[in-house]
């Protein structure tokens, strides 16, 4: 099996090293793992692509490349420049430092990489590691994802789910903020929404009087609306959320026929 991996935390991120181990397990002894990851951190860029400017790609070693672009850029460069005619069997993005559950999924560069992989017709997975009191002080905060990541992906692949849409499925996998031994299992969940939590902006002033704005996230441990990915993660479960790049609110289409 040939696997292309990327992330949004950058080529030197510890989560990428965890993903390389997961990919190596999945690829098997005769397989190949190719890394094309951002040269610098690209958190929060979503599905951004560098459409109006070129970017440099540097070869750092065998099957290892750093690109001065977003995760989606890395997938495009990996597929069309680095690998060329050698189509990968899987694309993996992550393991993100922090969760991409609930509304975080909409901002995530990690998901942006997997989404682009799906648009390119490749089975794709985004992996993220929730942080919290149960794992942030461990020697390896990515312990849960490192221990369970390969098995979760293998189970999803074995399910061989049929896709009824022209848009290919991709999967958002979030690992709970606990030690590997405390993971309770896997739950297939919808994407959630944290109650009352939104990104915001805060202005600061530098010593020289210039004004700057910081983007702030909300409370990652607040309650969510009903059973969902974030709820499962906070309860100690790995969440698996099947996704598509189709933003249509299908449940509303019929209600809007009066406007035609």
UniProtKB/TrEMBL annotation:
Subcellular location: Cytoplasm
Enzyme class: hydrolase
GO molecular function terms listed in the Swiss-Prot or TrEMBL record: 3'-nucleotidase activity; 5'-nucleotidase activity; exopolyphosphatase activity; metal ion binding; nucleotide binding
Reaction(s) catalysed (UniProt annotation): a ribonucleoside 5'-phosphate + H2O = a ribonucleoside + phosphate
UniProt xrefs under InterPro entries: SurE, SurE-like_Pase/nucleotidase, SurE-like_sf
EC number(s) on file: 3.1.3.5
Keywords (A to Z) from UniProt: Cytoplasm, Hydrolase, Metal-binding, Nucleotide-binding
Cofactor, how bound (note): Binds 1 divalent metal cation per subunit.
UniProt entry tagged with the keyword Transcription regulation: no
Coiled-coil blocks: none
Residues annotated to bind a divalent metal cation: 8-9, 43, 96
Survival protein SurE-like phosphatase/nucleotidase domain boundaries: 3-195
Needed cofactors: a divalent metal cation
GO CC annotations on file: cytoplasm
Family note: Belongs to the SurE nucleotidase family.
NCBIfam families: PRK00346.1-4, PRK13931.1, surE
Matching HAMAP family: SurE
Job description of the protein: Nucleotidase that shows phosphatase activity on nucleoside 5'-monophosphates.
Record-given protein name: 5'-nucleotidase SurE
Species annotation: Tritonibacter aquimaris
